[in-house]
Sequence to fold (391 residues):
Amino acid sequence: MARGRGGFIGQDGLNAPDPATGVSGEAGNQQIAVSFTSPTDVGGSAITSYRVSNSTLAHTATGSSSPVTVTGLTNGTSYTFNVWAINAFGESVASDPSTGVSPFSLTGRAIWNGCTNSSESTTMQYFLIPTTGNAADFGDLTVGRRGGGAMCSSTRSLASGGTVTGVGNVNVIDFAEFATLSNATDFGDLTVASGNGASSGSSSTRGIHALGSGSSNSNVIQYNTIASAGNATDFGDASPARDNVCGGCSNGTRLVFGGGGYASSGGSQSKMEYITIASTGNSSDFGNLASATFTYGMSSNSTRGIVARGTDIQYITIASTGNSTTFGTLSPSRGDCTSVSDSTRCVMTGDGTDDMDYVTIASTGNSTDFGDLIADGGQAMGTTNAHGGLS
Fold:
């Protein structure tokens, strides 16, 4: 008799299947997807279903194959699960238990796309902004790159453009679902290939990719409908044309971007601009940064945008126009800074280091350590499913 065959009253233990093996769980919001390997010895007939239960049998789900998702769980509570294989003759004995897994809310999940150690990479890393801790592997982009833009809805993340050594700027747009740890999928193409230092942002429905030629001045603004895969569409023009413009922040209605440099002269500038996301047209003047700068990180809640580069943190009020105001000091210094936000926190990273820092957006003050990346995040693209442009 194979190990673990059923032998319960009313069942044919000799013909029941062996138990599943390799049981593990992947946490989600109030749920855990339980994965397992089906037994080689299925007994006297094919397996018809699998039953998954936690250690107290209070939470149970069934399915025809791996994974089986158990819902109705409490976020922050650890659960272990066993799996029973079932055929026409009965159930196997319980599998070995999974390790403990705690479900969590996906709100505030952030993704850094591409670029490790300031060189192109397919790496996607993720973490939760409401907590502190290290980033973990999410999956891979379709094309390794550095720079580019990032946009998202509350469920889907887009990574657009970037630069590849020996190739130059690319027009690739990838997408990934925040809830699923997996590789990115091709979404479509930009109208114009765009390299380092793109400005980007989004509302709940529309993503904006602006400027960011990376090698020559550009004034192109493009947009995509995030829910529908396809190529970008022309939005309008920024003024003046420039390269190395990073970041962008939104309150759902307005996208603000600025700074950057002129490829022809090598100089940087302080001008900020804005567009109305739901319309199309050229950008309008917003105000000036406290200092001229090339690449910087910019993100927001629904009210206030945070701008960071080097050791300097500034802020703006998105709904009004005007110059930026000093917020605090970023430590350590970030050259090519990238940032992401939820309604409360802004998390920043940048080249030369693998650590992340954060500030509380509604206050002012210096940054605090958040955790570590898998690798240096210089010139990465960042998105989060809880930024200020989402409703």
In short: The chain has two domains: 1-104, 109-384. DSSP finds no helices and 31 strands in the chain.
